[in-house]
Design brief:
Helices cover 33% and strands 17% of the residues. It has 345 residues and is an alpha/beta fold. The protein starts with a helix and ends with a strand.
């Protein structure tokens, strides 16, 4: 077993460094834009409380190590929170930009919550420049994510786990249409009627005589949870065939921008994702009830579908609680803003 692990490490860290950069699954498969610190980046952390532990050399392999998590929380989360985790690693660990794709190895919302609830580890977290694979027996300490759906909350309850949810920023849950669509805004009620099947043509909401091509996301994804619980509020969404289920958020953007009947398409995502993490040419974001999703409208709550992203941890985990308290404090909120999110204050 040990020999197999060592071979895997050598293969992962040295022979095929693209493995961590271009996985077939997980959050990185849904990001096609460069995510790096911008010009004028500043270090906000001051006291050095959260650090990785020692590295243990692997016998028989030069410059390969198993890394201990120390006081730095092991993380997983939603795709839209990947840049936040990268910023935290810059602030506290000083990692090189080339190490970020391997160290921030998010599995997407449902898998992250499952790991946190079930006490599972986030495997294949690496620091390639140092030849380090982080301890893959250490359970997830912290999830950075959208709010869990009812099934995920019930799973935590069934496992006897009490989770603490701490909002650390604002974002907008937005509706996207093709840029050729003349409609610039919808009401909440119109959106509900589109997704229950009562509105079937754009002509019913002031647009062209085009069939509505209403895309959804898979049940359990962060955006589908927001759609079902915040937008539809218990209204049953119309059944659609699998061609109208976007596997990932990148798929949703591409289908609306590039779909053959693109002017009739509509879908939903998070504004930060659309603006930062994916090539989003060919789409536009709608106003809702006449309110655009600006930073000011998110902080004031004027935009109807204002959401938070949460730092989620198991109650009683004092080290992770301290880390989250820093995140929502003055220094942490500077880091939130620096990563491009809308801070709480």
């Amino acid at each position: 077993m040990k020999k197999t692990l060592c071979i895997l490490l050598a293969w992962m860290l040295l022979a095929v460094p693209a493995l961590a950069e271009n996985p077939d699954t997980g959050s990185w498969s849904q990001i096609n834009q460069s995510v790096s610190k911008g010009e004028g980046w500043e270090k906000a952390e001051t006291d050095g409380s959260f650090r990785l532990g020692d590295k243990t050399p692997i016998e028989g392999y030069d410059n390969l190590f198993i890394g201990d998590w120390g006081t730095y929380p092991s993380m997983d989360g939603s795709t839209v929170c990947v840049p936040m985790a990268m910023e935290l690693a810059r602030q506290w660990l000083g990692l090189e930009e080339g190490d970020m794709n391997g160290f921030v190895n998010f599995s997407t919302t449902p898998y992250a919550y499952d790991r946190l609830t079930q006490g599972k580890a986030n495997p294949l977290v690496t620091i390639k420049s140092q030849g380090v694979m982080m301890d893959d027996t250490h359970p997830i300490d912290l999830v950075l994510a959208t709010y869990p759906n009812a099934d995920e909350r019930q799973a935590a309850s069934d496992a006897g786990i009490e989770l603490v949810y701490v909002p650390f920023c604002y974002d907008a849950f937005v509706f996207m249409v093709n840029e050729k669509n003349p409609v610039d805004g919808l009401t909440v009620r119109q959106i509900q009627e589109i997704y229950t099947g009562q509105i079937a043509s754009w002509s019913q909401v002031g647009g062209d005589w085009l069939k509505m091509e209403a895309y959804q996301r898979p049940h359990g994804s962060g955006s589908q949870t927001a759609m079902e619980e915040m937008v539809m509020k218990g209204l049953r969404m119309a059944n659609v065939n699998e061609n109208y289920i976007s596997d990932g958020m990148a798929d949703a953007v591409a289908q609306i921008g590039n779909y053959d009947n693109g002017p009739g398409a509509i879908g939903y995502s998070y504004l930060y994702y659309v603006n930062t993490l994916v090539e989003s040419g060919g789409i536009k974001v709608l106003s809702i009830d006449g309110v655009a999703p600006t930073d000011e409208n998110l902080q004031s709550g004027a935009y109807p579908f204002t959401v938070n992203y949460y730092a989620v941890y198991r109650k009683g985990d004092e080290n992770t609680e301290a880390f989250v308290n820093w995140l929502v404090g003055e220094e942490g909120q500077k880091a939130v803003k620096q990563a491009g999110y809308v801070p709480l204050k």
